[in-house]
């Protein structure tokens, strides 16, 4: 420990250095100390100064202390570190860390004691010096004032030493002294007498100065306040400049009082004075001569209005803490002044009003915005306007309409006014224009300022129902409604001179646009104000003029078009505004689509966008810029990113136009970025082209927000580029757009629902990045996180840190086509050893390392074996909820065999009993789930957690081989031999073959609906099969139902013997491994339901039927040269529809085959029978090549459309979760609700769709989601919606109970849904 070093450090700390540093710090802290209110609060402030003051380390005093600490103790710290390094031993165990030990040694050292002692001595000396200087200054001040004031005044001590504000400050002058006087009542009388207007000016000035040294509360509480108030008002209006200024400054100072009563009295006094100026003092200028603010009278008046306006803007922040009377008196006095209108002289010009003066200071009525913000004040303001001062609003409407009508006059005043108003602020100091400020305002400028103020006031009023209740307003013998006013405002947007003038912020178009956007942001105001055909029609007139120009009439300019696009964008950001644009006022009120409306705003917008993109607008005008075109494409994007918007707009082929424009822009960008000799302006053009290219690819990507839009995006051929762009933004966690609250989660899920989407995600590296991130979270942790304590042991199966990656992974693996593209024909590595650095990069690697952990090498390669393997088993469980995915995993990777092997190895050595732990319970759950098929009441799934019962925490038996124990199966009732009669069975028995026409079909529908709603248990499989056969026999005679040509299977077999379907050929063929395993599942399920017997003959019957179907459908498929694995050959999944019919017909394959031959010609076959349209020749080639099934781009699309309109809470829950209704509905429909509904409900679902119409497929999904509303909202909050919907059955859903709701949906949406489902060739 070096004494010289420490003493040299001490020598640098001197009083002459501490004194200025301490003075500077105290000077900065004085406002906070004064605001403390008590000594204890001030002491607490100083003790916690470092925590509360962000400038703490910038004070010179703090820097001085820090430098002395470093200089004095730095060498000692170096010695401690060297000593520790040389010793190589830890310090005593009484200390937690080495750092704490070193600090303890330093604190206990003599150098530290010397430093603190000297610091205290020098700081105390500096404080004493500051105190002495302060006292001397105060004594000198008191001595000076005692010679002026005379006897009789008591003084309060001063609270500060900071210099006062300059005289030029209206809120701080010589009146704002640091010490107060406390006069008695007699002295107040003397001051009041001196302030009388009959006294000399100098006497009145001295009296006001004396009054300024009295606390405001003392002034208000005196008995002479009325006299003093009158004297102050007289002084304000006095011709003497000094006297008037002193009075105004005293008013300003009194406003700083914390007493609301003082503020009220001073404000009402000021307002009363201003009102007298306009009422009794004559005109304060007129519109003909304008206003020169350099004149003394105008200058003084503007300064008084400025003080009033400042208080008006500040008082809303605290008047809720004041009595109601305070608010009412402030509002009443203000509105009384503003509604005052000076009398117009006979033959004279229109006089200026208080609103003109206030508008010059607060053009956009900021005070009114604050007054209307809270309900507490808004209620009082609107009530008083309605009861007393309605003329103020009437006059605002009148002036606004007059200004809007004057725009028709051929003048260029507006440009001159707005540019003049933007030059400088108003001069209110009475000086000439030497500093460049405005000094003169012409009459038209004053009128324009009045219009701006009125526009902002009226716009704010229209936001609230009580404000809209003022309308209609009578103006010039006509009633002005809200719509009439808004139409007049909207017409200002298309002023001809707006095309060449830059954006200023005070031009009429900008102000109107801001007001309309503000209204569009309020749902209630939007409905009553902007969702009107009259308003939207006028708004779109400039756009229509560009589409169909009128000869001799100049089209609207770029600025106008941009303003309109901004307003339309705000409209399209809400559901109400969006429906207004799509369907018009009538369609929006009806609450449902109306495709007969072809002249709505959406059609105009999309037509302008498509023609602008393709450069086919009329050539009379110059082509719109990229900014304008991009703005209208963005509005279209807000529409087509929703299902209903795309349904209205897709006929314009906007996706094709955007794709073509993007390709052209991409080509231009490539040329622009090629190194060329520098040319002036090229860099700007290159940047503009690059931004345009990015905008187009962004808009094109947003087609992926809906199922049908994703199909259109795939058909443009740009899906890979779009997904690449999405991945770049998704990695940066950017929002989709300025009006979109969520990120790209929903869009990624939508893209991953299809095979081409999965291919695109793989090619861009999205899958690899997700897998790597997931692996890092599970196995590695974050290197950049400072570890201050050990991580807690996870207690949840899926740790919160990995939950988001878990959800994202499930979204990607939710759809079988996507899973097939990622996993088909991909083999596991199954290496003999793995290092900790071996990280999986794809889905196959993830399955191998996390799910199929069945070898010691895989186990030892995991840092967190149990946690990571549990994660993998949870993923496997959700994946296997899709039966086709399970069949693929089982046939390709033997998942069940691997899990059974792990269970067999997890036994006790002494008893060979399976050990119950977290992994064995998870594996047991997955094994039972994948082995059994059944609805909510048809199987028992074991829990994933132990029960609280200590005696038997897991009463479900574990197993290591199939079949599973009987305790997991339920007992099903056998088929009843008693024939139960019903209205449907009687109707069917009375039918003759020749009677199956449209009338018979209608009667059958009624009978079926009646039985389904009243006695659904009587609608058993035998009756339903009989009904289906007869209904299909009748439907094939209806032209609208038969859209596929009839194919004679036997004739085709004779003509083409190489693929014929004879029994000999069929027996020689074999089913795929997936279908063979599907046959086993089907027979096992049918045997459990007592529908068929689990025998070899039954399996052969079903296999033979599937082979017949395969040969039959192969004749109607085209060979496709495509990179998608999904389309390389026959249908890759199992035929669950055929399997369902096979069980319904009790295993009678011939009967089922005959039914399928007839059924294959009907429209419903394309949607209920998934293999029917696989690579079908009945679809256009682009649709076939896309690999996207109509169930997704049509049925699921309309599920989302109807769900948004009928059950918006559920639609919002899906969006927040990052999952989509289309994915889960496609999942349900693909496997005919197996594992989700009980068998009888599955039969009712199929019969409903065939008998009542295939659009009931859509209505059934909507009814199910509506039935699950409570659960969906709950699991959205728990952030496990995807897991719930895929793993859990649908308990309590009965088709008959929801048939009435589905019939209501049919009435509303059949005209929209059914034609689109029929039009398979043109989606």
UniProtKB/TrEMBL annotation:
Q: Which UniProt keywords apply?
A: Cell projection, Cilium, Cytoplasm, Developmental protein
Kindly give the InterPro entries that the UniProt entry links to this protein.
Answer: BROMI_C (IPR055392), BROMI_M (IPR032735), BROMI_N (IPR055391), PHAF1/BROMI (IPR039156), Rab-GAP_TBC_sf (IPR035969)
The residues covered by the BROMI N-terminal domain are 22-139
Localization, per the record, is:
Cell projection, Cilium; Cytoplasm
Q: Where is the BROMI middle region domain?
A: 188-861
**BROMI C-terminal Rab TBC-like domain: from which residue to which, for each copy?**
879-1319
Chief localisation class: other
What does the function comment of this entry state? Required for high-level Shh responses in the developing neural tube. Together with CDK20, controls the structure of the primary cilium by coordinating assembly of the ciliary membrane and axoneme, allowing GLI2 to be properly activated in response to Shh signaling.
The protein's name: Protein broad-minded
Name of the coding gene: LOC109473941
């Amino acid at each position: 420990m070096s004494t010289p070093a420490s003493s040299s450090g001490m020598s640098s700390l001197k009083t002459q250095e501490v004194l200025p540093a301490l003075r500077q710090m105290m000077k900065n802290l004085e406002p906070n100390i004064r605001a403390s209110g008590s000594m204890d609060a001030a002491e607490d402030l100083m003790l916690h100064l470092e925590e509360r003051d962000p400038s703490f380390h910038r004070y010179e005093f703090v820097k001085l202390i820090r430098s002395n600490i470093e200089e004095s103790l730095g060498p000692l710290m170096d010695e401690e570190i060297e000593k520790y390094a040389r010793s190589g031993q830890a310090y005593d165990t009484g200390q937690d860390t080495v750092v704490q030990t070193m600090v303890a040694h330093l604190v206990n050292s003599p150098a530290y004691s010397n430093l603190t002692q000297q610091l205290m001595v020098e700081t105390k000396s500096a404080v004493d010096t500051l105190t002495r200087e302060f006292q001397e200054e105060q004594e000198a001040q008191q001595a000076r004032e005692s010679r002026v004031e005379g006897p009789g005044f008591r003084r309060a001590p001063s609270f500060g030493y900071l210099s006062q504000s300059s005289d030029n400050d209206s809120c701080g002058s010589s009146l704002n002294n640091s010490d107060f006087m406390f006069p008695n009542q007699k002295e107040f009388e003397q001051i009041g007498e001196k302030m009388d207007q009959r006294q000399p000016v100098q006497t009145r000035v001295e009296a006001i100065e004396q009054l300024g040294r009295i606390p405001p509360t003392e002034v208000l509480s005196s008995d002479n306040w009325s006299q003093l108030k009158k004297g102050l008002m007289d002084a304000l209006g006095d011709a003497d400049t000094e006297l008037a200024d002193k009075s105004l400054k005293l008013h300003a100072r009194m406003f700083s009082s914390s007493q609301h009563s003082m503020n009220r009295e001073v404000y009402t006094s000021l307002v009363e004075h201003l009102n007298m100026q306009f009422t009794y003092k004559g005109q304060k200028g007129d519109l003909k001569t304008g206003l020169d603010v350099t004149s003394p009278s105008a200058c003084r008046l503007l300064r008084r209005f400025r003080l009033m306006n400042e208080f008006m803007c500040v008082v809303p922040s605290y008047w809720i803490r004041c009595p109601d009377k305070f608010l009412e008196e402030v509002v009443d006095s203000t509105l009384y002044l503003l509604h005052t209108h000076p009398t117009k002289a006979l033959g004279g010009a229109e006089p200026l009003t208080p609103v003109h003066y206030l508008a010059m200071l607060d053009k956009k009525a900021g005070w009114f915005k604050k007054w209307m913000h809270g309900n507490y004040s808004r209620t009082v303001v609107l009530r008083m306007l309605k009861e007393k001062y309605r003329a103020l609003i009437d006059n605002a409407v009148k002036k606004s309409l007059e200004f809007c009508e004057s725009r028709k006059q051929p003048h260029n005043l507006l440009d001159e006014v707005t540019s003049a108003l933007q030059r400088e602020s108003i001069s209110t100091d009475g000086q000439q224009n030497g500093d460049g400020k405005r000094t003169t305002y012409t009459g038209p400028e004053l009128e324009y300022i009045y219009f701006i103020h009125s526009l902002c006031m009226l716009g704010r009023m229209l936001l609230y129902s009580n404000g809209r209740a003022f309308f209609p307003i009578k103006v010039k013998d006509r009633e002005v409604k809200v719509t009439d006013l808004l139409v007049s405002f909207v017409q200002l947007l298309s002023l001809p001179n707006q095309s060449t003038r830059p954006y200023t912020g005070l031009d009429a178009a900008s102000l109107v646009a801001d007001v309309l956007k503000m209204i569009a942001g309020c749902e209630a105001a939007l409905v009553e104000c902007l969702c009107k055909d009259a308003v939207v029609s006028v708004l779109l007139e400039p756009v229509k003029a560009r589409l169909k120009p009128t000869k001799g009439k100049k089209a609207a300019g770029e600025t106008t078009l941009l303003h309109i696009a901004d307003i339309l964008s705000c409209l399209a950001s809400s559901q109400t505004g969006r429906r207004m644009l799509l369907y018009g006022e009538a369609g929006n009120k009806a609450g449902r689509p109306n495709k007969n409306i072809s002249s709505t705003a959406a059609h105009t917008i999309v037509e302008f966008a498509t023609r602008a993109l393709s450069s086919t607008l009329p050539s009379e005008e110059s082509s719109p810029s990229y900014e304008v075109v991009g703005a209208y494409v963005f509005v279209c994007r807000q529409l087509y990113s929703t299902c209903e918007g795309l349904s209205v707009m897709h006929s314009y082929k906007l996706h094709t136009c955007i794709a073509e424009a993007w390709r052209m822009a991409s080509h231009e960008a490539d040329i622009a970025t090629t190194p060329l000799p520098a040319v002036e302006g090229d860099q700007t053009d290159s940047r503009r082209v690059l931004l345009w290219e990015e905008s187009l690819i962004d808009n094109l990507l947003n087609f992926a927000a809906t199922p049908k839009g994703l199909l259109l995006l795939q058909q443009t051929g740009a899906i890979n580029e779009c997904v690449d762009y999405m991945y770049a933004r998704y990695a940066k966690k950017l929002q989709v757009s300025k009006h979109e609250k969520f990120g790209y989660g929903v869009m990624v899920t939508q893209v991953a629902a299809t095979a081409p989407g999965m291919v695109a995600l793989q090619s861009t590296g999205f899958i690899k990045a997700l897998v790597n991130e997931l692996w890092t979270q599970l196995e590695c942790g974050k290197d950049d996180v400072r570890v201050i304590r050990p991580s807690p042991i996870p207690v949840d199966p899926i740790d919160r840190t990995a939950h988001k990656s878990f959800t994202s992974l499930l979204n990607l693996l939710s759809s079988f086509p996507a899973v097939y593209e990622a996993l088909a024909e991909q083999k596991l590595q199954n290496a003999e050893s793995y290092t900790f650095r071996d990280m999986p990069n794809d889905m196959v690697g993830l399955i191998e390392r996390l799910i199929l952990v069945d070898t010691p090498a895989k186990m030892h390669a995991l840092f967190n074996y149990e946690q990571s393997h549990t994660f993998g088993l949870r993923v496997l469980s959700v994946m296997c909820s899709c039966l086709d995915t399970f069949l693929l995993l089982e046939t390709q990777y033997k998942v069940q065999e691997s899990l059974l092997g792990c269970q067999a190895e997890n036994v006790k050595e002494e008893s060979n009993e399976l050990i119950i732990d977290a992994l064995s319970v998870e594996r047991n759950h997955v094994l039972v789930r994948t082995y059994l098929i059944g609805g909510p009441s048809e199987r028992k799934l074991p829990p994933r957690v132990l029960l609280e019962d200590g005696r038997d925490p897991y009463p479900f038996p574990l197993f290591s081989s199939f079949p599973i124990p009987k305790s997991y199966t339920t007992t099903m009732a056998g088929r009843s031999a008693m024939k139960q009669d019903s209205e449907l069975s009687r109707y069917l028995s009375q039918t003759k073959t020749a009677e199956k026409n449209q009338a018979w079909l209608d009667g059958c529908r009624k009978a079926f609906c009646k039985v389904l709603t009243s006695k659904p248990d009587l609608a058993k499989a035998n009756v339903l099969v009989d009904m289906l056969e007869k209904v299909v026999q009748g439907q094939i005679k209806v032209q609208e139902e038969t859209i596929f040509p009839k194919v004679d299977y036997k004739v085709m077999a004779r003509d083409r013997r190489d693929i014929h379907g004879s029994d000999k050929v069929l027996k020689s063929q074999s089913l795929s491994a997936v279908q063979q395993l599907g046959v086993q599942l089907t027979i096992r399920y049918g045997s459990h339901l007592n529908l068929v017997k689990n025998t070899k003959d039954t399996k052969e019957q079903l296999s033979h039927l599937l082979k017949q179907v395969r040969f039959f459908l192969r004749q109607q498929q085209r060979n496709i040269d495509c990179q998608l694995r999904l389309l390389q050959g026959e249908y890759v999944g199992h035929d669950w529809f055929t399997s369902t019919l096979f069980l319904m017909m009790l295993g009678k394959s011939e009967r089922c085959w005959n039914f399928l031959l007839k059924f294959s010609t009907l429209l419903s076959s394309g949607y209920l029978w998934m293999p029917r349209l696989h690579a079908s020749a009945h679809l256009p080639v682009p649709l076939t090549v896309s690999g996207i099934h109509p169930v997704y781009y049509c049925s699921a699309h309309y599920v989302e459309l109807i769900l948004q309109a009928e059950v918006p809470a559920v639609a919002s829950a899906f969006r927040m979760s990052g999952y989509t209704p289309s994915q889960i509905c496609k999942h349900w429909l693909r496997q005919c609700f197996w594992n989700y509904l009980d068998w009888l409900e599955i039969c009712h679902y199929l019969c409903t769709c065939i008998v009542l119409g295939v659009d009931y497929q859509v209505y059934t999904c909507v009814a199910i989601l509506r039935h699950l509303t409570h659960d969906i909202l709950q699991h959205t909050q728990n952030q496990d919606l995807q897991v719930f919907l895929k793993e859990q059955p649908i308990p309590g859903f009965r088709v008959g109970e929801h048939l009435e709701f589905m019939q209501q949906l049919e009435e509303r949406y059949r005209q929209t849904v059914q034609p689109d489902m029929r039009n398979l060739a043109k989606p």
